[in-house]
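REQUEST FORM: STRUCTURE PREDICTION
Request ID: SP-0412
Submitted by: Lab K.M.
Chain count: 1
Length (residues): 399
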Amino acid sequence: MPSDFQVSRRQALAGLAALPLVSCTGGLSDAATGTMDTASAATRYPKPSLNALAQRGGRYFGSAIASTPGRTDAGSVQNPRYTDLIKAECGMVVPENEMKWQTVRPDPDTFDFSRMDDIAAWARTNGMALRGHTLLWHRPQWFPEWLNNYDYGPNPVAEAERLVTEHIRAVTDRYRGVITSYDVVNEAIDHERNAPIETSLSRAMGSPEAVIDLAFHVAREQLPNGQLVYNDYMSWEPAHREHCDDVLRLLEGMMKRGTPVDALGIQSHIEMFEIDPATGVGPYAEREWRRFLDEVTGMGLRLLITEFDVKDKALPADIPERDRKIADYTRRYFDVMLDYDAHLDDILAWGMVDKFNWLQYFDPAERTDGLEVRGTPYSSDYEAKPMRTAIAQALIEAA
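STATUS: Completed
RESULT:
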């Protein structure tokens, strides 16, 4: 028998997937309900909060968060100290990995929503808005293995369409009325081909564009008034210029085909893998980046900052100097992005505390000296860093 959270495909499609949002133990845990001493948080963290400052511009400031059942030593809803900080600074959260196919779809016939439900329950209890990430991460290395090796049978187009359609319907049905903004498709560019990437789904359906378009059309049927986002990691560094061009071609094709995309999610994992002597921070191509943003907004698309952090590989070990340069780079980036105030929606960090940030374990971004990447607004000791001040000042001036 399936548990409350591990349901068959038939149950999900029949609408039984939309079960009450409770913890894995059958009720809301202390971590989910947020029973930490919130009075201490009111004085521990700077005021106004980053979310309060973002709200002046009509947007949320938020963060990725995880669910780690049985563990309280992660950037997750089970960690009271971390959720204390999230509640103090954020108005929105987004699942880090808990909505991706490899988590919610362990095999073709089963949906496991347990970890995503933990996040949804915590967000609801604590009055947080919730974004969806992601309905389709269109890269083979992030597909569950069963999907890479799936037998699409004698009618591969119909079978691939069925898999994508039922997946998106199951997820959006479960969180109907809770999540209204989704990263529908994530990272669909093949950088060797400068074109959308091939997957088992695209080979079955005939092209990557067919898969991408289907995902957005199904999402629109499910969310007539929702915000449907294409999300990718292009950024303002000169090395990303071809990537930006690829994303523009993808978006232009979607618009021509009538694909219902509403916004571009700019992950904003901005990086300093080398230092520009003229600025003392990482090289960036502001003019070209603005041209890219102008073209995106010229299509009528909104912008979101969906996964902000800073890769500091080229910066010195000295923490005060490193933090100062990270703050400087952050402020330059936010000043540019907030120049697009009329087009920019929510801003989310990809974690708020250094030791829980994915960059500690992402090899190209790791430091050669073995020190922590200091890429988030708060240190591993939960102390606000100059980056936090830089974001706050940019939001204040923009408002």
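NOTES: The chain has one domain: 6-398.
Reviewed by: T.R.
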